[in-house]
Specification:
This protein is mostly helical. The chain has one domain. It is 90% helix and 0% strand. The longest helix has 30 residues. The radius of gyration is 16 Å and the shape is rod-shaped. It starts with a helix and ends with a helix.
């Protein structure tokens, strides 16, 4: 059970890190001019 708990905690931390990273990337893309945003979306 301890190993399963550690795996779940690591998965949660990975999801949180990915979510925060994508959030900051979205903010940076909005700050940048429109060309990088269209490239990233497509």
């Amino acid at each position: 059970m301890d190993t399963l708990r550690i795996i779940v905690q690591r998965l949660i931390t990975i999801f949180v890190v990915v979510g925060v990273a994508t959030f900051f990337l979205a903010c940076l893309i909005r700050l940048l001019p429109g060309d990088p945003a269209s490239i990233m979306v497509s």
